[in-house]
Design brief:
Blueprint lengths: L38 H7 L29 H7 L75 H6 L5 H29 L1 H4 L17 H8 L3 E8 L2 E11 L3 E4 L1 H9 L4 E5 L5 E10 L4 E6 L20 E6 L7 E16 L8 E8 L11 E3 L5 E8 L11 E5 H14 L5 E2 L2 E7 L4 E8 L4 H5 L6 E5 L2 E2 L3 H9 L6 E8 L2 E8 L1 E2 L1
Antiparallel strand pairs: 1-2, 1-4, 2-3, 3-6, 4-5, 5-6, 7-8, 7-10, 8-9, 9-12, 10-11, 11-12, 13-20, 14-15, 15-16, 16-17, 16-18, 18-19
């Protein structure tokens, strides 16, 4: 006889105790597994001797057989948690329609399916499964009530005006209210402005006269008058060249500049020299004369009615006076910087250009910004007069202006320029010796290294080893100061010279000669 096999689609049903009403079977209780209790745990956590229940023993009844009642609760607790007087004798009861006590059916309706033995709610070993969220069911056609706090959909402007979501009368009323608020606010603001601030209630602007010329002595006024007399000098030698600045000092077209600006053009016949004026006009220039010892040169151009600078007096300068530098630094023509006189009579010696003798002059030191290209340009005082020719700067590693610039005093440069224009060259005073700077505990000066035979120093009795401490009225502390003091003298001047020889001081009369 073939045994009936369970269908593969339906898992086999395990018989359980209960009532079968044709819809499924009730699952019976699982067998209770009571493991043995460890005696040590029993002794540690078990009930004390004589206690066989988890509940406290009943209180001893009174001797008369009545039940001992608990004392009445406090009145405050009765009022807070007691039954209200209107409740009467109402007791806890089931919900309306439920069965009274004692009438429950012996067998509850079956609600388990055939696979109830694997239901996760009945099987503690079953894995947890997340189900759908609980939700109330709604009858078809029944509209769910919205919470009172939930707002409706927002209306756009087209919906508000053209979508007939708001009555036209309501729109008109809203527009009227907005108009009234705007008109009222405007009237109130106008009234407050008129009455609250007397400065704006009635405004009368003062008349403004046309701008006047700047006061004489201002930098703008000085530049306006003197800028046209400062030119840019361009030297082209083959594929290279250089540029600098110059100052028009004579109506005949004579321009005073530095020798190192034009020295390349003087040594190369194929070189070209062009002069560019402040208005952009260009013309060819010609070297009239050069003086390498003082780093000065004169260039001539053929122009009519040029703007000529007014010459000042460098001897009247004082430290702290305002000065203005005009030139073409780095090719930027007609550039203006200003500063003060930082020092006067600063002896300066520099190497000559292309084998020329060392440059020697008594410089004006200024903190006006001077850079490459300013050489040969003008240094003006606060009246606009020319007091110096910008020529050099002191700059570590040739890094540009650091506020230490030097200019040749115009009192000295004028004498050299006149000699170059007249003769094409200049002779300077000389005493025929070489010296080096020395410093001792008692004195500083220029120590004579050698004396030219037949020279002015030799004739005056100056010997090697003598230390010159004074030349005329000028104190000598270094060899540079001696060179500057000599070159500023005229040829043939007799000058008292103070020397120290073997610790003994003496004064010798030295008559300068031509170099």
């Amino acid at each position: 006889m073939n045994e009936q096999q369970p269908s593969p689609e339906q898992p086999p049903v395990t018989p359980v105790s209960g009532v079968d009403d044709g819809q499924g079977r009730r699952i019976g209780p699982r067998p209770l597994d009571r493991p043995a209790v460890d005696p040590e745990l029993t002794a540690e956590f078990g009930r004390p001797q004589g206690v066989d229940s988890a509940f406290a023993p009943r209180a001893t009844q009174p001797a008369n057989g009545s039940i001992a009642l608990a004392p009445p609760p406090p009145e405050a607790l009765s009022m807070a948690f007691g039954r209200p007087d209107s409740a009467g004798d109402v007791v806890l009861q089931r919900a309306p329609g439920s069965l009274p006590y004692g009438s429950e059916p012996e067998v509850e309706p079956v609600f388990w399916q055939d696979s109830a033995d694997r239901d996760p709610w009945r099987d503690p070993a079953a894995g947890a499964i997340l189900g759908p969220p609980a939700a109330t069911t709604e009858e078809p056609g029944e509209e769910k009530a919205k919470p009172a706090t939930q707002s409706g959909p927002m209306l756009s402007v087209p919906e508000l005006i053209f979508g007939r979501r708001v009555k036209p009368t309501a729109l008109g009323a809203l527009a009227g209210v907005a108009l009234l608020i705007g008109v009222g606010g405007g009237i109130a603001g106008w009234a407050i402005a008129q009455s609250g601030n007397p400065l704006t209630s009635s405004v009368t602007l003062s008349q403004v006269d046309p701008g006047k010329e700047r006061a004489a002595g201002s930098i703008a006024d000085i530049v306006k008058r003197a800028q046209a007399a400062v030119v840019q000098i361009e030297v082209q030698v083959g594929s290279g060249g250089g540029l600098g600045s110059g100052v028009m000092i004579d109506s005949g077209g004579y321009i005073l500049t530095n020798n190192h600006v034009v020295s390349a053009a003087a040594s190369d016949p194929s070189a070209t020299l062009r002069v560019v004026f402040a208005d952009g006009t260009k013309t060819d220039g010609k070297i009239v004369g050069r003086d390498p010892k003082t780093d000065l040169a004169v260039v001539k151009v053929s122009v009519t009615n040029p703007t000529v600078i007014q010459l000042g007096k460098s001897g009247s300068l004082a430290v702290g006076d305002q000065v203005i530098a005009i030139g073409s630094p780095l090719g930027l023509s007609s550039s203006v910087t200003s500063g003060i006189v930082s020092a006067l009579n600063r002896p300066l010696q520099a190497n000559g250009e292309g084998g020329d003798p060392p440059v020697t002059y008594d410089a004006i030191q200024t903190d006006a910004a001077i850079n490459h290209g300013n050489s040969g340009g003008a240094l003006l005082d606060d009246t606009g007069a020319l007091v110096g020719i910008n020529s050099a700067i002191l700059s570590p590693n040739d890094s540009g202006s650091i506020g230490i610039g030097f200019a040749i005093p115009i009192d000295f440069a004028k004498r050299v320029a006149e000699g170059l224009i007249r003769d094409g060259q200049v002779k300077h005073a000389d005493i025929g010796l070489n010296a080096r700077s020395v410093s001792a505990v008692s004195t500083d000066g220029a120590q004579v290294q050698n004396v030219k035979q037949g020279g002015a120093a030799d004739k005056a009795g100056v010997a090697e080893g003598d230390v010159i401490t004074k030349f005329g009225d000028r104190v000598i502390r270094t060899a540079d100061e001696l060179s500057v003091a000599v070159i500023e003298r005229n040829i043939g001047d007799t000058v008292p010279v103070t020397v120290v020889r073997q610790g003994r001081q003496m004064v010798l009369q030295v008559t300068t000669q031509s170099d």
